[in-house]
Amino acid sequence: MAEGSRMNKQEQQEAVISKYIHGNPPATMYDIGVGNKSEWKTLGAIYPEMKIYGCEPLAEYIPELDDFNHPLFRFAITGSTGYRTIYFDPSDMKTASLTKCKSAKMKKQVQTITLDQFDQIQEKPKRILLWMDIEGSELIALKSGRELLESHRVRWINLEVRRAGFERAGWCSAKEINDFLEGFGYKKVTEYNRHHEHMDVIYVNRGELKS
User: Fold this and answer.
1) pTM over 0.90
2) With helix as H, strand as E and coil as C, how does 3-27 read?
3) Is 120 helix (H, G, I), strand (E, B) or coil?
4) Pairing mode, if any, of strands 106-113 and 76-77?
5) DSSP letter at 79?
6) Where do the H-state alpha helices sit in 25-104?
7) What count of Cα atoms within 13 Å lies in the side-chain half-sphere of residue 185?
């Protein structure tokens, strides 16, 4: 993959979190809601020793995942184990959500597990970079990983969140996420990739900031 100025615009955005990783690099990446993006590829090139585990309940609808050469689990991460309906448009998989929206053309029952259960499947690795883009379910997923967050093994978090006033019905707000993560010792270090309705936010474990 290209580096620095040779990266394309998308790769540059996906690599922003690397500016906040100092000292020991991440050993593991949890890519929750892999979708048709390529953060796993960009960050995997920057940190070639990092193990990557993906989670994508609609993988069969996403041709880009044919190249995903890492363990891929077809779950939706939410507050409990079971099944939920996910709504999506096969022509625009970036909008797939557990919350029904007008653009959805299809729906499917998918298996759900908690973030703590996902972590247990991976045998609780250390120095985790958590990347999550799950269309409004970020707070529910984070709350399902209390044991993981309390362990301080997650050192960096990248989330896509909605701007204030643009939250859809049933979606979490950026403030709710911020308040929740602050209680586990995470500090918001930047907002980037800003769009009219949403943006990416990076959190770093305060212990990592001191290292």
Assistant:
1) yes
2) CHHHCCHHHHHHCHHHHHCCCCCCC
3) helix
4) parallel
5) S
6) 39-46
7) 16
pLDDT (tens digit, 0 to 9) for every residue of the chain, 211 residues total?
Answer: 444 558 899 899 999 999 999 999 999 999 999 988 899 999 999 999 999 999 999 999 999 999 999 999 999 999 999 999 999 988 888 878 888 776 778 999 999 999 999 999 999 999 999 999 887 789 999 999 999 999 999 999 999 886 665 566 566 788 899 999 999 999 999 999 887 667 899 999 998 986 5
49 to each of 108, 137, 173, how far by Cα in Å? 35, 30, 34
Phi, then psi, of 97 in degrees rounded to 5: -155, 150
- Does the structural domain 4-210 have CATH classification 3.30.1490.20? no
In one-letter notation, the amino acid at residue 145 is G
Element (H, E) at 147: helix 146-150
Instruction: Report CA dihedral (122, 125, 128, 132) to the nearest 10 degrees.
Output: 20
Query: What is the DSSP pairing of strand 82-89 with strand 154-162?
Result: unpaired
